[in-house]
Amino acid sequence: MTENKSTKKPVILITNDDSYSAAGIRKLISLMRPLGKVVVVASEQIMSGMGHAITIKTPLRMKKIASEPDYEEYVCNGTPADCVKLGTQIVLKFKPDIVVSGINHGSNASINVIYSGTMAAVLEACIDGIPAIGFSLLEYSMDADFSHVDEYVTAITNQAIARGLPQGVCLNVNLPAISDEKPKGIKVCRQAPARWVEEFDSRMHPRGGDYHWLTGRFENDDLAEDTDQFALENNYVSVVPVQYDLTAYQAINTIKDWNL
Amino acid sequence: MTENKSTKKPVILITNDDSYSAAGIRKLISLMRPLGKVVVVASEQIMSGMGHAITIKTPLRMKKIASEPDYEEYVCNGTPADCVKLGTQIVLKFKPDIVVSGINHGSNASINVIYSGTMAAVLEACIDGIPAIGFSLLEYSMDADFSHVDEYVTAITNQAIARGLPQGVCLNVNLPAISDEKPKGIKVCRQAPARWVEEFDSRMHPRGGDYHWLTGRFENDDLAEDTDQFALENNYVSVVPVQYDLTAYQAINTIKDWNL
């Protein structure tokens, strides 16, 4: 796809971490195609729980699997962060107007953001100065129903394309699972400080030796109404502006006082 | 190792992302043993570039490879984040006084923090309310020389044990590579907004098809003197207080104004 500044159609790069065949990315593609020129670069394999992994020990390979007017699709052996690098530097060779990632099968709200491959792709784009949004549905099943999300995904993406995003800021959007009630709307939130507790299911192997499955339950001690967890528990779509500058500025003077 | 509140010796959990056999973790173990009771949980495999990956699709296995007075060492098939979970929940069954991770072979300064398995372990501990520090050396070689780092690693760890860290804050410490000149001291910094550019070396396979190696150069446009990159380029040890709350608070009102 060549850069064409004369057209008004925005160029949209799509990736995810559930592999190119997941229902979530298929939904996202169907929602993005009416909005602009779409390039998809996604992994052939599920990359969930890969965090912000990048591939440095093996070479990356990519192949085109679809080419239609205003639409190209590639699969590769990379992580979500790799997909963004490949999409911008190898496929497009210019910066798209926006990167959208997802729709993830499962929540990336609260502390899940830091484990998320979906959001790693978004942060990668953000570092590169490209507006970027991660979308996730609060339903882990690969058969998840995405039929209620269209208007929210489209509205948020349209606004981000039209207005851009502040330097160093991207969006983490989570969507409630489908229920009898339509979502109540969209809430702009902060990340809840929830965390996973009692995380292992330990078992004995029939031939000896124990092994441990990562599991556990999610606990949120912060009951304030401005968090993403609160919004989602009350059937709102949550939007958290996210940054890749992890500096805890409020702690700099405390550590300086250590007189190291 | 059992919890013993009557002793004054702090319990120190050590992990890394270069595997249990790396020179960096061996150095860190040698520096921590005089400071308290040490438990090591590290991966058998190199986990560099794994970001904040966690293992959800395969069970975790762990075995004890050393047991001495005030010292236990385990290896496992998990990522650095998994190692912290295993160490606190399966091995110790209580929270250690501190988690230290590293010493990584290679920089985790600036934006590298978000790709870092070393720092993922630190953030994991921080989420769990445990003071935690990641140490990294600006030398990628597995033969890296760590002989100049002792006083800095020990001083920073001792202060963190004695004073604790603010809620939700951990430390990202980077150490200059060895040179003819001793490091000038320790600087408390913010994360530099540097980034990787021109990241692929693309080649043609002899049997056809191209492949791409992730490579490139690191660029820092921010020449201010309060960043970790500046400190390291001037032969200081850098200490950045880091948080896992990624909310871009300054952008919340901007996004609210979108009237979604």
The proportion of strand residues of chain A reads 25-35%
- Biggest sheet record of chain A: 9 strands, mixed
CATH top level assignment of chain A: Alpha Beta
Question: Based on DSSP secondary structure assignment, what is the total number of beta strands of chain A?
Answer: 13
**Terminal Cα span of chain A:** 53 Å
| Structural classification of chain A | alpha/beta
Query: If strands are numbered along the chain, what order do they take across the biggest sheet of chain A?
Result: 3-4-2-1-5-6-7-13-8
CATH architecture of chain A: 3-Layer(aba) Sandwich
Rg of chain A (CA only): 19 Å
Low-confidence stretches of chain A: none
- Biggest interface and which pair forms it? A-B, 75 and 76 residues
Mean pLDDT, all residues of chain A: 91
Helix content of chain A: 10-25%
Shape category of chain A: globular
The helix tally of chain A amounts to 6
CATH topology of chain A: Stationary-phase Survival Protein Sure Homolog, Chain: A
| The named CATH superfamily of chain A | Survival protein SurE-like phosphatase/nucleotidase
Spell the H/E element sequence of chain A.
EHEEEHEHEHEEEEEEHEH
- The number of domains of chain A: 1
User: What assembly state would you assign to the polypeptide chains in this entry?
Assistant: homodimer
List the helices and strands and how they pair.
The structure is a homodimer of 260-residue chains.
Chain A: E1 11-15, H1 23-32, E2 37-43, E3 62-68, E4 71-76, H2 80-92, E5 98-105, H3 117-127, E6 132-137, H4 150-163, E7 169-175, E8 186-188, E9 195-197, E10 200-204, E11 210-214, E12 217-219, H5 228-233, E13 237-243, H6 252-256
Helix pairs in contact in A: 2-3
